[in-house]
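pipeline/complex-builder :: batch 7 item 3
reading input block
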Amino acid sequence: MIEGTGAVRMHGISKRFPEVIANDHIDFDLKEGEVHALLGENGAGKTTLMNILYGLLRPDEGEIYIYGKKVSLHSPADAIDCGIGMVHQSFKLIPSFTVADNIALTLQYRSEFKIGEVKDTAIDLMKKYGLPPIDMDAEMHELPAHEQQLVEITKMLCLGQKILIFDEPTSVLAGEQIGILLERLRMLAKMGHSVVFISHKLDEVLTVSDRVTVLRKGKVVGSLETRKTNRQELVTMMVGRDIPVLSKPQIEKGQKVIEVQNLNVTSDLGVATVKGASFSVHKGEILGIAGVAGNGQVELVEAITGIRKVASGKVLIDGQDVTNASPKRIIDMGVGYIPPKPRETGLAPSLSIIENSALRDYSLQSSNLSIFLNLDNMRQYAKRLISEYNIVTPSEDLPAGLLSGGNLMKLVVAREVARKAKALVIFDPTAGLDVMTIAFIHKKIIEASENAAILLVSTDLDELLSLSNRIAVIFNGKVTEAPQGFTREALGLMMTGGEG
Amino acid sequence: MRVRKKFLISVASLVIVVSVVIFVAVISYNLATGCSIAKISGLLLQGAVGSKHTITECLVATTSLLLAGLGVAFAFKCGLWNIGAEGQLHMGAIGATFIALNLSAPAPLHMLLIIIAAFLAGGAWAAIPGVFKVKLRANEILTTIMMNFIAIWVVQYLVHGPWWDTTQNVIRTSTFPTSAWLPIIVPGSRLHAGLLLGVACAILTYVVFRYTRLGYAIKMLGANPKAAQYGGVNVPRTIIITMFISGGLAGLAGMGLVCGIFHFLVDSAWGISPGFGYYAIGAALLGGLSAWGTLSAAILFGFLISAATYLKAMLGMHAESLYLIIGLILLAVLARGIFIGQLKRLPGLRGKE
Amino acid sequence: MAPFFLSLFAGGIRLAMPLVAAALGETFAQRSGVLSVGIEGYMTLAAAASLLGSYYTGSAWLGLLMGMAAGGLLALIHAYFCVTRGLDQIVSGLGLMFLGMAVACMVIWASFAGFAGMPAISCFDPIDIPMLGQLPIIGQILFHHGALTYISFLLVPSLWFVLERTKFGLRTRAVGEFAAGSDTMGVNVSVTRYICTVFSGVMSGLAGAVLCLEINHTFFNGMVAGRGFIIIAAVVLGNWSPVRVFGACLLFGLLDAFQYRMQILGWWGVPYEFWIMTPYIITIAALLAVRRVRMPRELCIPYFREKAQ
């Protein structure tokens, strides 16, 4: 730890959104040469605070001082001028551009920079920082997550940024890559950079940071030197109460409901993304599929739910071959699907809650032969879902888009689970939600598993570990079941291609 | 309470939009022709409500706008940019002409067959770009516009070629037999039963959107295509059916023109339509893509177009000047979006408070 | 036979030129994420403006400037609606299209007593390039065109260079692929889109001026005849890449020239209306044939920083 002057001082920062106060008079400071962790659960306000520092959002109140000078940040361009760089949770890289072009795009900001020099500048810099070399001409979407992250880091360093913000950088990594990244953060601090490390993972925070500031519901709970605190204290500060612990009921394995045989699926770009996957899910059990995002989960799930055609192999529901069947047919067979990002794929925000509740069943809401909808049924159904799932809304007629993120997800979950489907395919159901909503949704999933087969695909290992009866890992399109008595580390290894 | 406010806002914005359009149009005509604003406004008013004749003329325009507008509303609501109403309208006219001149039947039956033929012809013309979109992912904006041009030249070919009745003074087909004439509903005027057909279609459209599974699928597809697909909506089938209905309604508008007004088919130089298919886009958007909205907009728009046509005839201007109205309407609809967005910031008007 | 083909190809190039400038400009606009459906109207208004400019000043070049200004003005309005306000690009484009066509008609009508006597105006006459023009076949096809045609030719490599090799081109491409990401890297998304959109309008203005001052030497309603949409088709056909778009324009120009000649020659007894239809049919066929589409991801999607983060 180097004692230095303050690199950043944020004082009294407040930011309000229509439904929530994201930042409530927050004070935060960053010393030169330190790694300062910003800890808190999802929705605590960490990303908002740093987005303000990076000029993506304007604060409603408060001041920001960079190296002692008061600044007003209207856009990322201003933040870049102050020497701030940020690596976001979802990479801000242009997928179809090459590595060189992406770095050039960042550097073009400096007027003295010439496009032709990009590659040399980047390669030299990466050598200087001890970063492994990357193919400059590869297109971004071809690179694995940890290499994309390398490019993000290189971009900032090429610009010469001193203040570096990392937003949940380990969420896209697994296995040894996580350790490597944490090492890099310490290395950057040693080389004189000031690093902000946003995370909700206690162990990582304890490993890598010099100081930690804990946020809860938009307020600062406390700010301590890491070596002077411990896990217990941090948890209490983060959460403030006990997280309800789930107990998994005894399972009686029923017959096979979902079965996948030798499935091969290609992506939109023609690349084989699912290779020879074979597994089955039985009634009464939850099969979790773990994996780092981008290893074929999307295509696998889409193939099973009928949204995507398969290249070869079979999908069977209840023993019947439904390979390449339409989504409607698969829904009619009693399969439900909870997609990720409900606002984008699960709901139509401009239509009413009633209409959205009926989405999967609009053909079943009336007698089967009628072309007419049964509006009364639809309304009753929506009301039922709202009350059973504690969805906060003044009326079921309002557009679904007005619901908050947590309530939106609850609506989607409600819609699928309430159908008493015989199988549920669930994909990243709790990304970005607050702890209470997550617990509620997990409870509902376990309830549903009593009478159904559940395929749970998630990038959140904690979620999988607490819900699944069995776990398999998907890596590079291949699905491998974890052996009995697996450890968390073994899983991490499998997720990054090592042996389990 | 909230619902009433929403209704008031949409009515108010409709009135404001049309007023602004009229205002700008009058100024433009004044600048172009040098006639005084008073004279222009007077002519417009005369053309709109000056006499029983002009009022019925406005409703005649409304008829075409209504039918084609409903067609456009169907497509737009589904997220399909059907700009081809003009071509589908002409195809409907061709279908109607064919049955009118080549088939003999007693009046009600003949009319029914004509209506079916017009709907099928227009529907097929729209379904083709629909199929292209579904099978080959071809953008429907460009394909439907191209189909417009093709349709107009097909009409030209038929009228100047095989269907040309050389005994006539102008280049046109033979006059339809009276069994193919739409009855006049206001004696002494040109206002024909097509208007009633249009209102019936509006009612049907309302029912479809609100009460049927197809309507639900259309709304869902237009609101969020991915969610619709995940939710089990048969996307390709819905797209093609919607385009078919959309073109069919526009085709009925064409039928209304040849069976209700002209009683023959004529070439593009004279023209059965000054661009109703395009105006219909303005009407549908102005009406917020709903059945009743389109009806109201069609009425308003009908008066506007008819009055402007009268003005144009009086001043000796060209048909393209009418494009001024639709251009302004479209931009005004856009501006209304800005305006309503600003309104939402005012306290007390926010939906969920 | 030979003179037929010579005149065909020469005519093809002549007819392709109005398309080229506008198509290249629109390529830029679309690469940055903005779609201008209203090009038909921009070109019509520009044609009228260029005629008026040429008539009142006696200089064809000033007429050209007027035309480009007219196109740019309409595009500026489009940019305001679409980029600053994030409103629907299709509706805005169509509205401006109709507006452009109407204003063009009314202005010409008012200036020349209702199209009664269209004046003779200063135009861009074909220039015979001294040595190159004497070359056997190529000379006749390529080197007897008006100044604007040569300018359009030169635009192709220049704009390719700007798009692929300069910082501005890099920014443009980035904004059209991933606006949020580009914003994060300090690129001003709005300004980039404004510049590209207005540039497209100015190029459409050039195209309209070509139609009026170099090809038709006058203005009449409907003179653009759907070219505004064929231009958009050319951008799609060219897969949003300047050189390919140029190729698509040449193809369309050739078809247009072919179709004109077929009307006159009346080959195979085909009625002339069908020849007129061919460009439109071919356009549809072209749209159907394009595979591996590389449409800019953010096309028609407005960007607002607060909403994206």
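note: Chain C has one domain: 2-111+129-308.
queue -> next item
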